[in-house]
Design a protein that fits this description.
alpha/beta; nine-stranded parallel beta sheet; four-stranded mixed beta sheet; 12 helices
């Protein structure tokens, strides 16, 4: 049994911090260890089954940046509790300086105000370290150091995204990656169809089992046939699926009869996949075969069963169309859900097992749904997203990323019941302007990554059934949200409409390598 303890705030202070329960610890191999987290007064106690060194990842409030996940350096167990803010500042400064060095070595022009910001952060951290016997001073200086480190990281991440994206745009005669969105029946309105086709280069047609066969043996293809035909007429790149959604509520209700008969369940799954892929043979050449097999929830399948079912599904799709590109969708790609102790494989290990099995897997679609629970991703800065993509790119397969940000916390009658908008962690309440801001930063960064071949928005209109509440770019009345302008600017060949760096500049940079 291993225990790590952290002093959260000095004695005599109180803190409203329910988010501490989202803490998790990663080991040297990146695996998230099962963890029990307890907050007793001003002492945070993290209990694990082993006593290896590890990095603590935890939401913590930073002035001007909300409640992002922050990571400490690798810490050994200690008889004396660590000062939480001091270790968070140490971790943020270390990762920011390391990333700056790597990017500068690759050819990035480092903004001058980044250097001044990170220098100030280090000076404040040094003062905090020098006053270890005065908890109040440690807390004050560490918190100031954290704020400055996040300001430096914000400048660095924003500058990287702009420089790298502009470099790619200037060297290519086409968009650096597909920019797509899930289509719906709103495309029957001519003005919305024109808007969709002029904004996106790819369309995701929701060929989903729940939608096609709501009752056993009764297939409904007409509405999807119309969407596929519309996309083809507009010469859009089409991706179909997800055919099988293994999350809670993602499978047809009638299938629960077979939840305890795994052999027959696999037969039903493969039969549907073969039917759907055959139906659109020659029309859809890219398929998202399975969604969310890493977290699951549907039919209470075990991790081993989900892995086997995903493998069988890929086999069925490849057998039906040998030329198709096959993807699976991974949600919560940082793997924080492993802290619950119900998952043995990390998200990347889950996919790696499929890649090594030579099942025809062409790529993985990472779902980053910020602001949602229980199936969303917590707030992280651009450096964390960049590192995530860099790690996943090591698999050597295509990466797609599907983004979701809420434009409001109000009730969405068209969204599924299993997903809700959570408490905002971005420092301000969710709004259309906040949605637009985060879309701009994430899309620019993702488009700058060579491994990312497609960036997709979760759905088009909030007026039709969808998964994530208030995440569309079109309001239910058909009017546009501000995020439309952001996405359209990223879809153009010219980079003149790109947002400026956080310091107000747009650097060029000569990129040598990643």
């Amino acid at each position: 049994m291993g225990v790590m303890r952290f002093i959260v705030v000095p004695d005599g202070k109180t803190i409203d911090w329910p988010e501490y329960e989202a803490a998790y610890i990663t080991q040297l191999d990146g695996r998230v260890a099962p963890l029990r987290v307890e907050l007793q007064g001003n002492l945070l106690q993290c209990t694990r089954s082993n006593s290896d060194s590890g990095k603590l990842h935890i939401p913590w409030r930073v002035e001007g940046f909300g409640l992002p996940i922050i990571t400490t350096t690798s810490l050994p167990e200690s008889d004396r509790p660590y000062h939480l803010t001091l270790e968070l500042a140490r971790g943020k400064i270390a990762e920011t300086r390391e990333q700056a060095y790597l990017w500068e070595t690759a050819g990035m022009l480092i903004p001058d105000n980044f250097r001044s910001q990170i220098k100030l952060a280090y000076q404040l951290f040094s003062k905090a370290s020098a006053n270890r016997n005065h908890p109040t001073l440690v807390d004050d200086y560490s918190q100031q150091a954290l704020t400055q480190a996040f300001r430096a990281a914000d400048v660095l991440g924003g500058s990287y995204a702009i420089q790298r994206f502009k470099s790619r745009m200037q060297s290519l005669s086409h968009r650096p990656a597909l920019l797509g969105c899930t289509v719906d029946e709103s495309l029957s309105v001519e003005v919305l169809k024109d808007l969709f086709c002029s904004t996106f280069s790819a369309a995701v047609v929701p060929v989903e089992w729940n939608r096609i066969e709501p009752t056993e043996g009764n297939y409904n293809w007409q509405s999807l046939d119309d969407l596929v035909s519309c996309c083809q007429q507009q010469r859009m790149f089409v991706r179909g699926g997800p055919l099988i959604d293994l999350s809670a509520g993602g499978l047809p209700q009638w299938l629960t009869t077979w939840k305890d008969d795994f052999l027959n369940l696999q037969s039903f799954v493969c039969d549907f996949i073969e039917t759907a892929v055959s139906h659109y043979a020659g029309q859809i050449r890219m398929w998202e075969v399975v969604a969310r097999p890493n977290t699951g929830g549907g039919l209470r399948l075990t991790e081993e069963q989900r892995l086997a079912l995903t493998a069988r599904s890929l086999e069925a799709a490849q057998r039906t169309d040998t030329e198709a590109q096959l993807f699976i969708r991974i949600d919560r790609p940082w793997g924080d859900y492993q802290a619950g102790g119900q998952h043995r494989l990390t998200p990347i290990q889950f996919v790696d097992a499929l890649v090594r099995s030579s099942l025809g897997l062409s790529g993985v679609n990472l779902e980053i749904a910020v602001g949602y629970h229980p199936q969303g991703s917590r707030h992280r800065d651009l450096l964390a997203v960049s590192r995530l993509i860099d790690v996943w790119s090591l698999l050597g397969i295509q990466l797609h990323v599907t983004l979701s940000f809420p434009s409001s916390a109000t009730k969405d009658s068209q969204a599924v019941q299993e997903v809700a908008v959570g408490r905002s962690e971005c420092g301000v309440d969710w709004s259309e302007e906040v949605q637009s801001h985060w879309a701009s930063r994430y899309v620019t960064l993702l488009m700058s990554k060579p491994a990312v071949t497609g960036v997709f928005w979760t759905h088009f209109s909030d007026g039709f059934p969808h998964r994530f509440p208030n995440a569309g770019i079109i309001r239910p009345d058909g009017s546009q949200k501000p995020v439309v302008k952001v996405l359209r600017s990223h879809g153009r060949k010219s980079s003149q409409d790109l947002p400026a760096n956080p310091d107000g500049t747009v650097g060029e940079g000569t990129w040598i390598s990643e």
